[in-house]
Amino acid sequence: MKLFVVTATNLRDGAIRWLGAGNIWQPLLANAQPFDAAGIVPALAFGAAEISAQRVIGVYQVEVRRAPDGLDPLSTRERIRAFGPTVHPEFSYAPATSGLGV
Fold first, then answer.
1. Using CA atoms, how far apart are residues 34 and 36, in angstroms rounded to an integer?
2. What is the DSSP letter of 97?
3. How confident is the model at residue 73, as a pLDDT?
4. What's the pTM value of the predicted model, to 2 decimals?
5. Which of 16, 60, 62, 67 has its CA at a distance of 20 to 30 angstroms from the CA of residue 23?
């Protein structure tokens, strides 16, 4: 069975939000309410109403799967939106050795 969550961008602060239980926007994917294919329809309708009320923009569904540590988006784009940048520590630099004099 496919699972989905609803995401949007908060108009007040530009932060990514996830629709949680009780139709409350949450800052973390971990608090998002998963929906099946039938349940996503009213959730998206709620999101459209939130756009009209000028609380959020860019409402859409994201396909997820259940993982041992919670929900996991299937697409790389949504994983980045949910969990942050994808820089591996091996490719980053320590400020003291950056050569930038910082």
1. 7
2. G
3. 96
4. 0.83
5. 67
Could you give the CA distance from residue 68 to residue 60 in angstroms, rounded to a whole number?
25
| DSSP secondary structure, 13-37, as one string | T--EEEEEGGGEEESSGGGPPPB-T
> Hey, where are the domains in the chain?
3-90
For residue 93, what pLDDT is reported? 58
Which portions of the chain are predicted below pLDDT 70? 89, 91-102
- One-letter amino acid of 37: A
CA dihedral 75, 83, 43, 37 (to 10 degrees): 30
The runs of H, that is alpha helices, within 1-102 are 40-52, 76-83
Q: Shortest CA distance to 18 belongs to which of 77, 66, 80, 81?
A: 81
Give the whole-angstrom CA distance, residue 84 versus residue 46. Answer: 26
